[in-house]
Amino acid sequence: MTVKNESKVCIYCAGQGYFQLILGGSETCACCGGSGKHKK
């Protein structure tokens, strides 16, 4: 059995690590902590 050690892209921010706010600026994605990778 082979275990893959791959980090999948965060589904909430699509791997960007942040959200673009409507009023301008950006906010760090709370799900991945700004890394853009999905935490298990």
UniProtKB/TrEMBL annotation:
Pfam families, A to Z: DUF5351
Designated name of the protein: YuiA family protein
